[in-house]
């Protein structure tokens, strides 16, 4: 009897333990299930939040329609070839009326006629000379985030020149790069090695000396350039005017470096100096008379190479200043801006946004428009529609852009009047030393600026 009771008690305890174990297992399963549900809900909420954020970033804008008026320095055919036809395809409901700038039809005349301008082309210099004084400059900063424009694909040098107090007034849509063209036939004639990417100005000078000579009464010049174009984009970012005082600042070491390295050193040969006295050096010496071996100029000649260049030509990167290794010229971009007086800024910004898209930039790069974007896909498309399989197109993107100089509305007084008209000519002809020339240029520029200020 006692033994039977013990056995029954033993089995009862076993059943109780089993029941407790099942209950504990159920509780654990319930907790696990609850945690899984909570985790799933959290993940779903995160996905919803991310989707909403993405939707906010990629706002679906209504297709632009109506009319925009665009003013710019590009000719009508150029505007049609590189802008209008792409915009019509992208925005079929939008009509763009383009007004090409001429000597008789500048922005002052257009505004005075009562024409409302929505978009305009500008260089960095023209922003300060023309569009800020005309009260047309609109800060684009609020629109850039709204329209998802990725400024990381644009070199800071492009943006620095058109920014004031952290406000960005223009965006670059194409670039006119500085390169060094050279005539292979001249190098072959004299048995001289071709120029290469990454040369310094000192190395270019030594190469130039091997070309410079008088042969059969024909004076050959090793290297020349377009002075006004280069000075605006000098590799040491030398400035012309002090923004705070409106005084010329050119009698200094920055400009002495440029004038000695380039305008003086490359023209010490008596034959070159005599040629400059007889007839000033110009484009024709390189691309018509074929007596200049190397010529530093903008990339525009590539688009018209059949008319603008010798039959046997190529390009190399612009030589670097030894004091500024790795730097090419400053930006020389075509920018687009939105008029502060436009009633259609939202529509205009959609156009600007498209012009900075890879879709558009790849297409026009193929046709010879140099992109301001750093995107490899766009750069690789450069001149794809041209028969340039044997040309050094990578030279266009060699090196780092020099920082943009601080620009003022009076810079062109120095460039056109004091530098190009007077002292460069005299230095090249051997009639004036660099130090005297820079003192004279600064004094003349300041007098001209004072006259301008007095008349305003």
TrEMBL record:
Is Nucleotidyltransferase one of the keywords UniProt gives this record? no
Identify the Pfam families for this entry.
SBP_bac_1
Q: Does the keyword Transcription apply?
A: no
Q: Where is this region: Disordered?
A: 28-59
Which SUPFAM superfamilies does the record cross-reference, listed alphabetically? Periplasmic binding protein-like II
Q: Which InterPro entries match?
A: Bact_solute-bd_prot1, SBP
Q: What is this protein called?
A: ABC transporter substrate-binding protein
What species does this protein belong to?
Answer: Paenibacillus yanchengensis
Source taxonomy: Bacteria, Bacillati, Bacillota, Bacilli, Bacillales
């Amino acid at each position: 009897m006692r033994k039977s009771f013990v056995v029954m008690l033993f089995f009862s305890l076993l059943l109780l333990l089993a029941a407790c174990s099942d209950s504990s297992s159920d509780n654990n399963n319930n907790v696990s299930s609850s945690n899984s549900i909570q985790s799933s809900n959290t993940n779903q909420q995160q996905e919803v939040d991310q989707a909403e954020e993405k939707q906010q970033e990629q706002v679906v804008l209504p297709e632009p329609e109506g009319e925009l008026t665009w003013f710019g320095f590009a000719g009508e055919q150029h505007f049609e070839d590189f802008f209008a036809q792409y915009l019509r395809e992208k925005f079929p409901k939008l009509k763009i009326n383009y007004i090409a700038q001429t000597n008789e039809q500048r922005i002052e005349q257009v505004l005075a006629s009562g024409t409302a301008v929505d978009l305009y082309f500008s260089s960095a210099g023209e922003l300060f000379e023309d569009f800020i004084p005309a009260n047309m400059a609109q800060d684009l900063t609020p629109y850039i985030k709204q329209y998802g424009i990725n400024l990381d694909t644009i070199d800071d040098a492009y943006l620095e020149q058109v920014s004031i107090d952290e406000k960005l007034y223009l965006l670059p849509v194409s670039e006119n790069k500085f390169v060094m063209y050279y005539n292979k036939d001249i190098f072959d004639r004299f048995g001289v090695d071709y120029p290469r990417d990454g040369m310094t100005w000192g190395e270019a000078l030594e190469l130039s000396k091997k070309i410079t000579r008088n042969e059969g009464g024909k004076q050959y010049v090793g290297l020349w350039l377009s002075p006004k174009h280069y000075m605006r984009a000098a590799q040491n970012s030398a400035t012309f005017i002090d923004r705070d005082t409106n005084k010329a600042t050119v009698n200094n070491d920055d400009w002495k470096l440029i004038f000695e390295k380039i305008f003086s050193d490359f023209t010490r040969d008596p034959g070159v100096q005599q040629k400059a006295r007889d007839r000033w050096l110009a484009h024709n010496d390189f691309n018509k008379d074929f007596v200049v071996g190397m010529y530093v100029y903008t990339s525009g000649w590539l688009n018209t190479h059949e008319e603008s260049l010798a039959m046997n030509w190529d390009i190399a990167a612009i030589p670097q200043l030894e004091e500024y290794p790795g730097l090419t010229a400053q930006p020389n971009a075509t920018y687009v801006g939105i008029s502060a007086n436009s009633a259609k800024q939202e529509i205009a910004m959609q156009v600007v946004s498209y012009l900075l898209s890879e879709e558009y930039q790849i297409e026009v790069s193929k046709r010879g428009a140099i992109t301001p974007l750093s995107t490899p896909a766009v750069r690789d498309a450069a001149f794809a529609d041209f028969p340039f399989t044997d040309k050094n197109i990578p030279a266009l993107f060699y090196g780092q852009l020099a920082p943009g100089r601080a620009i003022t509305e009076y810079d062109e007084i120095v460039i056109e009047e004091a530098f190009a008209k007077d002292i460069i000519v005299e230095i090249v002809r051997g009639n004036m030393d660099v130090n005297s020339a820079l003192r004279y240029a600064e004094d003349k520029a300041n007098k001209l600026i004072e006259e301008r200020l007095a008349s305003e």
